[in-house]
Write a structure and sequence with these properties.
This protein has about 130 residues and is of the alpha+beta class. Helices cover about 15% and strands about 30% of the residues.
Length: about 130
């Protein structure tokens, strides 16, 4: 009887240790909408081109309770992709920041909506946002 209780206790302890030791990852995406738009875009001098890099222009980010200017920078190029810079979009009187992203480039006819054309049901619809 003692051996049975000891075995059950050890199994419960092992299960508890396994549950505590297992890391839990979570991802939180925050979508912020404002009743007012960002300040005017600042003029930036674009440095000379760098081979293998793409210039990402500066943009106004929302941090806490105010807009904060984030200066432009170079990021490493991704062959076969086009970079879409950060931009503020107004929809129904609400402003929302659309984060910069890499979009599959298929030449001039790519709609660059963030959905790879092979998964896009309407890849060249000019009226789709």
């Amino acid at each position: 009887m003692f051996m049975k209780k000891a075995l059950v206790s050890m199994l419960i302890a092992a299960g508890t240790i396994g549950a505590v030791a297992t890391p839990v990852t979570s991802v939180a995406a925050v979508d912020i909408q404002l009743n007012f738009g960002p300040p005017p875009v600042r003029y930036e001098v674009v440095p000379a081109p760098r081979r293998g890099y793409v210039w990402v222009p500066g943009y106004w980010d929302w941090r806490g309770r105010q807009h904060v200017w984030v200066s432009g920078s170079w990021i490493r190029e991704r062959p076969g992709y086009a970079y879409q810079p950060h931009r503020w979009i107004e929809r129904d009187g609400r402003w929302q920041l659309e984060r910069g992203r890499w979009d599959r480039a298929r030449g001039r006819d790519s709609d660059r909506d963030g959905v790879p054309d092979r998964f896009d049901r309407q890849p060249n619809n000019p009226y789709r946002r």
